[in-house]
Design a protein that fits this description.
four-stranded mixed β-sheet, about 190 residues
Length: about 190
Amino acid sequence: MKQITRDTKETKIKASLEIYGNGEGKISTKIGFFDHMLEAFTKHSLMDLDIVCEGDKHIDGHHSVEDCGIVIGSLLREEIYPIKSIERFGSGAVVMDEACVECDIDICNRAFLVFDMDNYGDFKGKVGDFDIELTEEFFRALAMNAGFCMHIYLKRGKNLHHIIEAIFKSFALALRRALSHNQRIGIPSTKGSL
């Protein structure tokens, strides 16, 4: 299990991650809906994640959410690379009532994010105490620090709670599949390293 501490003027975060866990976690960011999303990620990825974030919530949730993405991405990088004997590519579509979101991942050590919510329109506002636009900030920080190429896109949906929950769950499912062991693959690249 990898552990990391991030201490800045904006946030203090302590976290640990076991990528082949049981889907258990202790989550406390002081942003209720975000905690709920990280719990959904933990459950459906089957990873064990403990994370405590003390952030400058008197400003807003931006630093807390983005820095949690940095920390989780950094933990994933430490746990995964160098890559060997995993599927590498993963895809998952999740439906939440009227909403459907797909996430596609390449664990390639080349960071890139496509975050396409065009089917919704203006992806702004709040769900509970969570600023919706921070969803993209979280996944950008995670992808850049983990070295993942990720495409997350909304196929359909109207309810923002359902859409965001489907985003986190589809990411969890795609990541779990990409990290599936496959001894026959060896290093999953024609380059011989990732």
